[in-house]
Design a protein that fits this description.
The protein contains 15 helices and ten strands. It is α+β, with helices and mostly antiparallel strands. The strands form four sheets. Strands 5-6-7 form a three-stranded antiparallel sheet. It has a three-stranded antiparallel sheet with strand order 8-9-10. Strand 6 and strand 7 form a beta hairpin. The radius of gyration is 22 Å and the shape is globular. The two termini are 20 Å apart.
């Protein structure tokens, strides 16, 4: 068990030895609800029964699960017996070109009383593949493809992990470049999400304008490394695409143009009464609910919970860059949409500041990636990154020869899917698309 202490800026590691075979231990979930999903995963994968767990059911239906006789078709949905209630199933195949997930609503007329979200349809065995890939390049490629919209975030989490296990430090200039890429990814997705939210409430001007601006941002990343999503940009020990003076100027120019135009569009969006009427008081999540669910990232910050790895456990250039996170209170779709605007402005300021610092570090150019790193034996390493959704965590354990024998990935969506289910309670079922889009959680990041 690895627990981050935000106040002390530290990480604590606990372990517990159990005999082989089927065992039962007392669940911690009744006292600490945030642990419910981790105990479910341990039960699913290893058969450890957690006594008095209130919701012990499969989480991902992984290929290596303990109970191979249970299939995803046998998922035990919560139900309420009543002649006045009805159930509505959405997915796993959706009308849009998105990933598979099943949403089971229990409704009284149009009002949603309960939503249960069942995932696990595309479990790819990502964690086991980290053990099978012999080369660091192969592991890097695997990491940046965990979630396609978070290539930089997951790629950076793995690179930090590899460098920690090998005892390798990277120059400040490379650390700055990695954070610039990470914040560009944050800006691109937030603008894209604004477009999608406008589309869901039929505000076409906001949708098409933000889609065009998102394209400008990801095309800037493509100018830098040849890939719009930043694949190939972050590698252990070095980089194949050092940030040149010419590329710095491109980023400055494009970012200035995008920010100016985005703020003009955002002013129209957040002053449109029809948009506001659909966003405001829709899909409310309280700070207490977010706390009990263990919410991370934006899903926590929109309920006034200041949870941000860039502040609590600074990484890369954030170790030398003072940063204050942004929070809002309200917990509705409007709050989640408006927080994106504030984070876009903050990310643009970070990038511009780091570009100025980078320009003064010309003499410390980073080298090429190091794919021959030798990892320490019998070690554990934990890497955390504040991706655009929130806390990304990669953890690895090595054997005596330095080879990775266990690898775990935690995408922020693992925590935050529960918040979407809570946000729908008491809403009309027609509010689901805009609520879902306001969180924009990852299916593949959860299923792994």
């Amino acid at each position: 068990m690895v627990i981050a202490d935000d106040a002390a800026h530290s990480i604590h590691i606990f372990s517990h030895r159990q005999p082989a075979g089927k065992v039962s231990i007392e669940s911690l979930t009744p006292a600490f609800p945030q642990l419910h999903i981790f105990e479910r995963e341990i039960w699913e994968n290893h058969g450890v029964e957690f006594l008095n767990h209130p919701w012990l059911k499969p989480l991902r239906f992984s290929s290596g699960r303990y109970q191979t006789d249970i299939s995803i078709a046998d998922y035990p949905f919560y139900s309420i017996e009543s002649e006045e209630l009805h159930e509505v199933g959405v997915g796993p195949v959706h009308a849009g070109v998105i990933e598979p997930g099943h949403f089971r609503f229990i409704c009284y007329g149009e009002k949603v009383l309960h939503l249960e979200i069942q995932l696990g349809y595309q479990h790819r065995g990502v964690e086991n593949q980290f053990l099978n890939h012999e080369t660091l390049l192969g592991k890097s490629l695997l990491a940046e493809n965990i979630a396609g919209d978070t290539s930089v975030g997951h790629g950076l989490a793995f690179s930090q992990l590899a460098e920690a296990l090998a005892g390798v430090g990277v120059p400040e200039r490379l650390q700055i470049e990695r954070i610039i890429a990470l914040e560009l990814e944050r800006i691109a997705v937030h603008i894209g999400d604004t477009a999608a939210l406008c589309g869901d409430v039929a505000y076409q001007l906001g949708q098409v304008a933000c889609e065009a601006l998102r394209t400008m941002v990801i095309n800037t990343t493509q100018d830098w490394c040849g890939n719009r999503f930043g694949k190939g940009l972050v590698r252990p020990g070095g980089t194949n695409y050092p940030l040149s003076a010419e590329m710095r100027n491109v980023i400055r120019k494009n970012l200035s143009d995008v920010l100016r135009r985005y703020l003009e569009v955002a002013a129209l969006v957040f002053n449109n009464q029809e948009v506001i009427s659909r966003f405001e008081n829709t899909g409310i999540v309280t700070s207490y609910q977010a706390l009990l669910a263990g919410a991370v990232g934006m899903a926590a910050r929109m309920t006034k919970i200041s949870r941000d790895i860039r502040v609590s456990h600074p990484f890369q250039a954030y170790n030398n860059y003072g940063f204050e996170t942004t929070t809002l209170e309200g917990g509705d779709v409007l709050c989640r949409a408006f927080l994106r605007k504030k984070e876009i402005r903050a990310s643009a300021a970070i990038i511009n500041d780091l570009l100025d610092i980078h320009e003064k570090r010309e003499s410390s150019a980073p080298g090429s990636p190091d794919y021959r790193m030798i990892f320490s034996g019998d070690s554990i390493a934990v890497s955390i990154v504040e991706g655009w959704r929130g806390e990304i965590c990669h953890c690895a354990i090595t054997g005596p020869d330095g080879k990775i024998i266990q690898y775990r990935v935690k995408d922020p969506s693992l925590h935050n899917w529960q918040l979407l289910a809570l946000a729908m309670r008491g809403q009309e079922i027609s509010d689901f698309p805009v609520c879902n889009k306001s969180f924009n959680l990852s299916y593949c990041g959860n299923d792994l």
